[in-house]
What does this fold into?
Amino acid sequence: MTKEITLIGAPVESGAGRRGCVMGPDALRTAGLARALAELGHNVTDRGNLTSETTPRPPAPNPAIHDLDLCAGWVEALQSVDVPGGTVPIFMGGDHLMAAGTVPAMAARSERPLFVLWLDAHSDIHDLTSTDSGNLHGTPVAYYAGRAHFTPHFPAPRATVDPANICMIGLRSVDPFEKAALADAGIDVTDMRAIDERGIAAPLGAFLNRVRDAGGDLHVSFDVDFLEPSIAPAVGTTVPGGATFREAHLVMEMLHDADLVTSLDLAELNPFLDDRGRTATLLVDLVSSLFGKSVLDRPTRSRT
It folds into this structure.
């Protein structure tokens, strides 16, 4: 099950309200992500960090929005990334605005329907007019699902994802606008109450079966705030009551067993807020589980 894995740094921090995510890619390197994956038998290439060019954009329709030109430049740079088919890219962020670039890029690359597993405390489905904070890391889902017009402020998406192909797990901070948008879009949502009541394996398993039945590719967008802050403090948007250590590992182990993941985001790692690198180290451990690290070997389901 050797895979060709490409690490791509996306040091985006203009979409967030706190600075520090620019250091995320190098923190993951320092924590040994490439080494951990290589020790599992995979072929790993690190392409370094992407850069962006800031292109002046028309003024935002919402005065709360900040750094629009910087954000648009990152969306364009990430959408333009060239990753050959058969290679699994890991986009190392960077705030979650990165998904406005990575998801359209992966949807354009894929010859199959693209599905997105959104592991996050937030739904990030605001648009340019609805955001009160002006932090554009709260808008990528609306953008890549084609839910709102972002042009000419952002480049047009290279490809969009059908909202029916999006599954969000771990939500616990959703405002009224987002609740209405999620219901209108028909996105599959499992919030933390549902996980408390029924566990995390059943909804994830059902979604993976849908991806398999459709013959789809799967992009996983993992936000650090999906996790319980006590085990992963290095995020600027902490929300109590997140996924536990074992719940997070179970998600990754199930993803490995399904063998459907074709690309991955690691978003919102802010090393400035970390405790001696513990969050970056945990992320490396979780990604290792996704790519085959286990206590006991279990059969892996084939895509074919």
Q: What stands out?
A: The first strand starts at residue 4 and ends at 10. The mean pLDDT is 95. The chain has one domain: 4-290. The domain at 4-290 is CATH 3.40.800.10 (Arginase; Chain A).
